[in-house]
Structure prediction request, 137 residues.
Amino acid sequence: MGWACGYENLYSQGYGTSTAALSTALFNNRLSCGACSEIRCVNDRRWCLPGSIVVTTTNFCPPNNALPNNAEGWCNPPLRHFDLSQPVFQQIAQYKAGIVPVSYKTHSVNKGKIALSTLRQSQFGFSNVFKVGGIRV
Prediction:
């Protein structure tokens, strides 16, 4: 099973690159897995682009306490950080910016919608139940 939330292939499951890894402060010990967040770049006219993106939480961005919070320790507590793929990041900010201030809002997802992934090998079977967060299964 893949990553901190148990998702396997994000493309075959319909997420593509519209996903995020969350810092400790946002990840909430896996309770944020499958949550959808709308993110907008704010307060930086030089780097921000108009509009917003919606991403699904599919992973954890681990802290690196060897680095200071303002110099590549972006996922360190107590920071609230969304680690985004480059294609998604470039929808809200210019690539060269690297790290930008954002506002975000967590949206409710289609309740009751889950997906089940199964794997069978010889005498054993494995199942992974995960939130789908608004995609069609």
Residues 30 and 43 are 30 Å apart (CA to CA). The helical segments are 24-27, 86-89.
